[in-house]
Amino acid sequence: MNISQSYALGQDSHQAQEERQSLYQSYALGLDPYQAEEPKSAYQTDAVGQDPHQVYERGHGPYQPHEPGYGLYQPGYSPYDDQIPDPKSRMLAIQNAKAYLLKSSTTSGLNLYDHLANMLTKILDEQPTNAVDIIENISKDVKWAQFQKKMDTLRDEHEILPTFEAAEKRKALFLKANGGDEELEEEIGETPLPNVMETAFYFEQAGIGLSKDESYLIFLALKKLISVQPIQTCRFWGKILGLEMNYIIAEVQYHEGEEEEETEEEEVIEEGGKGMGEVEDEDEEKEKQDEPPKSTYKPPPVIPKEQNGTGANKYVYFVCNEPGKPWVKLPPVTPAQIVCARKIKKFFTGRLDAPVVSFPPFPGNEANYLRAQIARISAGPQISPIGFYQFAEEEGDEEEEGGGGRDTYEENPDFQPLSVAEMVDSLSAWVHHVQSILKQGRCIWLNPFKKSEEEEEEGEEEEKAEDPDELQQEIGPPLLTPLSEDEGIQNIPAWTAQPSTNLIPQYAIAILQSNRWPGAYAFASGKKFDNIYFGWGHKYSPETHTPALPPPVQTEYPSGPEITETRDPTLEEELAFKAAREEALVAAEEEEEEDDVEDDEEEEDD
Amino acid sequence: SLNCVEWSLLPPATEEMVAQAEQLKGRFQGDPSFEYEYTEINAEDAERLFEDGKEPVIKEEARLIATIEQIDRAVGIIPRGAFVKTPLGSVHENRNFEGLSLTEAKKLSSYFHFSEPVNLKNKTLLEKADLDPSTDFLDSLEHDIPQGSWTAQLEKGGTVVVLRSLLWLGLTFYHVPMSKQYGYVYFGTGEKNLDLPFML
């Protein structure tokens, strides 16, 4: 408003500069299509001859001759009226036109008159080149400026952009570690820190991976993790997408003998969770406390989880939602969780403490489900080129429980890398180096019934995957089996292999994608290889997922005479019964009279 | 294209292609001339087809076309305001579109499906009064069934908003707030995620 006022005033003060005025007027003429038919002189009067206050009061609308306000706006009252005489009809038209211009918009509260005035002022002040080409932008800018011109005593609180907050968190990553850690690094020959950037480079050749920024941040976050925990080996395992947030996962292995109990060692925000009590031995059976009749339902024995450091719990996993956020350790996985995780298919939300609502009910919250899926993915598509790992011991102990002697391997110092072409062509050039998980949910089969001494009848309703009746020893594929023995799904092979580029075979790397677990990739190039997972965390199945049906309703306790209900006797029956008894007693009365009294009392009590 | 060097033009999809392709399950083979056979067809359909004289095979090319069409129709999205509808009914790009603001960008209601609106008429009059007919002429995302079939996340320190579809796993939409950049891509196996209701 100030500007238009100054504009109007400026007109009054610069009266002599008629050229300028005519410029304004010609603009006004050109911009206002409704006024096109009016003669120029009308505009001169219109633009020039008004006081600033009258300009605003025009918003009341054109005054007709009979209305009281009419005479006030006659041009005769302004200093310019002697310049251009006007007939009344033209005046009316001008007033109409001006009133239209001053009409406020319903949505923004501005009016066209002020807006044009502002715009022209701005143009003349700034004198941009080719103003006519950018006139729309100028118009927009002026409108925008309207809202910013308000000089409030209140200032908007400086809005902290989320980018800034995120940057603050990341800043911590970039700070150098303090002096103590540096010494430690000098002692260790190889840092446990994986070279994430190098791995990212190789995967990028395949078109898989995260952006460079993110890779680098993950790199730094892993470095921080290592400086805090006593870790022997560490690997960036991958990223699992979730609904609200994603998970970045690191696979670590502790130094020998430095493992501590998981529940006690917690460095960060940790949610209680129901599944945390796994440290205790869960070998005991639970029995229901039922009133009679005692139910015959006995849950199958809970299979104990594998020891840390072996089998499915060989590695410890840390997750974080974003690099920069603190790392959270995932609890070790129990076989029950793995078995259940096989049956359900749920998205991850991104919060570790979220409950997993599903059927069959998952024992644990999202942290456990995540760990179970990680275990399955690690057991399935983690592969390495053949020969890279070899067995450390002799294979004489094979006869023990399914591959018990074969769960360790070490790097083969004599590893001769195969050429890329060979790696791609034959799947037998790759082997699994992680033990696969048996149906039971463990890597090493355990006979649960050895420990319990009672005979138990397994309910047929149970869905646990172990074999209740025959107790067969489950044997999974032994360690280091080549990929060619992986069965495909329907007619799709389990793995798809291709070189990263056909154009430059000298530097191409072999890339494998798993079809069973979409998102699992592995690459190999010379002596380097790695696996990674980017995805939603689910196995692929061409059929749709059908949840398990609820178990059939348990049969009720077999009905026998002791619990069958009978109808209560009716009154007639009772009376008849009573009468019959009395007759019998009358017969006995003759023998003893005292007894009759007692009997009568007894009958009444009945 | 199979190698990003040679490109071939795909014909537009027809309804029957889409209908046929919906019956196929499993991964794509990678060979456009691969022919699928109906394996799960029941007797009635087979008779019907044989009567028409058509053989029950579909080429992978047709399946590809149908899948692309389905994906575009189902989950092709644009931010609100990117396209405007003139009073004459024609839709064109809005050159003044400056991007969504940060708060708007996090809401699902500020994104629309880029296809014929289905639900627009079902809105209450009250809601319709708030709509701006030049920009709100498409279905918004927040009424997608099942509820929650999109995930919205801020990436890169909050400068990019990324929406991922859970119905077609692999469809990613990105938008940089306060700028004109947006787009969607699909990387995936080309299969609809029919397990979605179980997974949420």
UniProtKB/TrEMBL annotation, chain B:
The keyword NADP does not apply. It is found in: Cell projection, Kinocilium; Cytoplasm, Cytoskeleton, Flagellum axoneme. Keywords: Cell projection, Cilium, Cilium biogenesis/degradation, Cytoplasm, Cytoskeleton, Flagellum. Its main location: other. The keyword Cytoplasm applies. One of its GO terms (cellular component) is kinocilium. One of its GO terms (biological process) is axoneme assembly. Belongs to the flagellar radial spoke RSP9 family. This is Radial spoke head protein 9 homolog. The lineage of its organism: Eukaryota, Metazoa, Chordata, Craniata, Vertebrata.
